[in-house]
């Protein structure tokens, strides 16, 4: 299993991804539509190029700052508030729709992003010039 590069665990009612930390050669990981809250154990998956986490219960995505090869990230329909971890990534496709993000400044000057989705669950959105 260590040589596995692509894994799709979409719609499996998964709550924990702790066992995935050993899949260090994985490049594409689909965990869409599960019940995942914590992804910090994925920190050793340094070869990730695509990470799909749509429709989970994730609040903290700080672990993605470790994924220097990441080009596609979908964290839509989660509970994400802070996207500081995306600041130094060179993503081509990013979906952060339906989260609770109020500060998009970490994405400022991100010319690498070709596709960006950001429909918000708005509580209070501060807009400054």
From TrEMBL:
SUPFAM superfamilies: Outer arm dynein light chain 1 (SSF52075)
Species assigned in the record: Hexamita inflata
Pfam families: LRR_4 (PF12799)
Domain of life, per lineage: Eukaryota
PROSITE patterns in alphabetical order: LRR
Record-given protein name: Leucine-rich repeat domain-containing protein
UniProtKB keywords: Leucine-rich repeat, Repeat
